[in-house]
Amino acid sequence: MTKSKIVLDADVIIHFYKGGFLTLLPKIFPEYQYIVLSHVYNEIKGDIKNQLDNQILFLKDISIIEFAPKGKMLLEYAELIKTRGKGESACMAYCKYNHDVLGSSNLKDIADYCQANDIVYLTTIDFIYFAIRSQLITIDEAHSFIATVQDNGSRLPTIDFNTFISTKLL
Questions:
Q1: Residue 149 is part of which domain span?
Q2: Side by side, which strands form the sheet with 5-8?
Q3: Nearest to 11 by CA among 108, 93, 95
Q4: The pTM is what?
Q5: In whole angstroms, how far apart are CA 23 and each of 13, 17, 89?
Q6: What is the CATH number of the domain that holds 156?
Q7: Which end of the chain has fewer beta carbons closer than 10 Å to its terminal beta carbon, N or C?
Q8: How far is it, in rounded angstroms, from Cα 11 to Cα 84?
Q9: Average pLDDT over residues 37-53
Q10: What is the radius of gyration, based on Cα positions, of the chain?
Q11: For 69-121, what is each residue's pLDDT tens digit?
Q12: Structural domain count, the chain
């Protein structure tokens, strides 16, 4: 049986790399296959790409999929890239026609589209929340992760996971 996929956008990969948790990412939802589309893979550079390559080669918990849309998916992609980046556009078109989950924190570009097209999406904060719930990390480690990602130049909201988690339980 084929696993459902989580299609990762570059920002989530970069956040998890900068926070030192890239190897943790596929463990959060082990029932899913984690993939990176070729358009997104080509956006990733330097040390981040080196670690991603090592993870793909040795841990085999993330895969690269060639993005070569045809038919309706190609038309959708062509429309999306008029107003969004190549990576986000590829991920959204792929998820729409394959009914997969999008992993992206670029809410400005994805949220409205995903909601209008019934695409489930997870942000970096969502992944961290589920890592806490699965007891893969502690709340303190989650707070440290966010601070480290921010200190390394990426934008993430500062979340008090104690409050965040309690609102999810209501």
A1: 5-168
A2: 62-65, 33-37, 5-8, 101-103, 121-122
A3: 108
A4: 0.94
A5: 10, 8, 25
A6: 3.40.50.1010
A7: N
A8: 14
A9: 97
A10: 16
A11: 999 999 999 999 999 999 999 999 999 999 999 999 999 999 999 999 999 99
A12: 1
